[in-house]
Amino acid sequence: MIELIQSQLLDPFRIGLIVALVFTMARTRAATGTILPLALGVVFVAVILPSTQGSGAASLTDAVLAGLVSNLIILGIVLALVVIFRRMRG
Predict the structure, then answer these.
(1) Could you list the residue range(s) of the whole structural domain that residue 28 is in?
(2) At a CB cut-off of 8 Å and minimum separation 6, what does 43 contact?
(3) DSSP alpha helix (H) spans, the chain
(4) In sequence order, what are the residues at sequence separation of 6 or more whose Cβ sits closer than 8 angstroms to the Cβ of residue 63?
(5) Less Cβ crowding at N or C end of the chain, within 10 Å?
(6) Contact criterion met (CB below 8 Å) for 45 and 14
(7) Which tens digits make up the pLDDT trace of 43-88?
């Protein structure tokens, strides 16, 4: 399970989807809010990637659970970078 999470943390497609999710959330915050779009996006990415790319030796359930963990870690890093960028920008 740890190996699966590590491989997902380094997946550039997953990282790009989470960055796009944060960017979209920031642009539509007034209409949709913050928490619900991020939560649904994290779940969507966690389910859609193993469903379409295959999960290898791991079961779909394990791949989705590992995806949720890795997506939340990536999301936390991206949100922290956004906060740092906004503070530096003024």
Answers:
(1) 2-89
(2) 68
(3) 2-9, 12-27, 29-32, 35-53, 60-89
(4) 4, 50, 55, 56
(5) C
(6) yes
(7) 999 999 989 887 677 788 999 999 999 999 999 999 999 999 999 9
